Amino acid sequence: MPLQPRPPRRAPAGAAGARGRDAPDPRRHRGPHLRRCRQPRPDQGGRGEPAGERCADSQARAGRDPAYLVTLGTPSRTPEARAMTTATHSTLFYDGPRQYADEVGGVLRDALLRGHRGLVMAPARRVDALRSALGRDADEVTFVEDTVAYAPQWNVYRVLLDFAAKAKGVRTCAIAEQTLSARTPAEVLDYQRLEAAINLVFADHDVDLLCPYDAGTLPSHLLDIGRHTHDALRTGGAMSQNAGYDEPMAMLAGLSAVVAAPRDSITVDCSSPADVSTARRMVRDLGADLRLDPDVVADMALAVTEVLTNALLHGGPPAMLHIYESGPTWVCHVQDSGRDALDPLVGLLPPAMPSDHGYGLWLARQLCSAVDVGTDDSGTHVRLHIRTTAA
User: DSSP H helical segments within the chain, as ranges?
Assistant: First the structure.
């Protein structure tokens, strides 16, 4: 089923972005800009990292060069000569590896016969099953394991965009599945946002996206993500309308509820630009005390820098940073007094330039395990999560 057109965008606000201007169009994707290192500006006291290796390392991680896409599957067929149509976003509920290989393999074969490009982002065991099922046709498909494509989860958007850009003018058939059962509750919530937003931000891309869900092993609350975020179902090689599909903007709004910081949080007032560098050092010190991976903590510090800077530039004082643990995640929670309605799509795809609004949230999503954004009477809240336990 074709995805629905995107609604008019609303100006972002508070810690999530600037007020009074439209959010950047996610279609303006220029991957190389993500590899630039943002430098502090004189009027922005703690913005970014010092011009040094840590900033370069963190930016490189956030805007990682997609080496896994350098060598595409080699097509042996002529691309289908027809006008491109809007994207489709369907799901498949499979029970066991055999049904998976039959159904997904059939979708890929049909796409290859039409001259489309094939991309598979899936767990290693599923990649192996599809390679075996496709035989020689597997040479025409690009495979990316989920530990790369979904590291972190929002990186999957970039993988898909990079692939489509390298196959410009040819329709893409993409398979997207990760090991969802290994995700934390915060990551699962963020994945719901990711699946719902696909219906809007990819609506005018030349992509057929199939998201398989393992009905034989996943619990019902995870299967419900597939049921409510795809407007089409695939069964027995046929595609039908999904009666359980929920309107994406309504779902995204329902997933943006504000969660107050716990009373025992470590809280610091960051209402002046000079406070940002202090907050960054605090994040690093507390992360070291928890014996978290230094690179992951440094990435969190960079994400906090970006979001706090946005709060100071576009939100209302005071700007507060709350730091606490929540289950298996460590949370850095930025709060300002901005109460304007947020655009739930801001920062989901890379803006054209690092100076564009939405870049800070985009970068945070490339650095953190999960990002929650919401606004209520208490202001605008951005919660940045990293895992404290292994997957």
Answer: 53-62, 97-113, 124-134, 146-149, 155-166, 185-201, 220-229, 248-254, 274-289, 294-314, 359-367
Strands 141-145 and 117-122: parallel
How long, in residues, is the chain? Answer: 391
Domain 14-64+256-387 of CATH type 3.20.20.370: no
- What are the structure tokens assigned to 345, written together? 């799509």
Domain range summary for the chain, segments of one domain joined by +: 14-64+256-387, 67-254
In this structure, what DSSP letter does residue 332 have? Answer: E
**Reported pTM:** 0.79
Burial class (CB in 10 A: 0-12, 13-18, 19+), 35: middle
Q: Across-strand partners of 209?
A: 89, 174
Closest to 334 measured CA to CA, from 120, 93, 46: 46
State the Cα angle at 252 between 246 and 256, rounded to 5°: 140
Domains 14-64+256-387 and 67-254 agree in fold: no
In order of 64, 65, 91, the CA distances from 158 in angstroms are 10, 10, 20
pLDDT tens, position by position, 80-133: 433 445 889 999 999 999 999 999 999 999 999 999 999 999 999 999 999 999
Fold of 67-254: Rossmann fold (3.40.50)
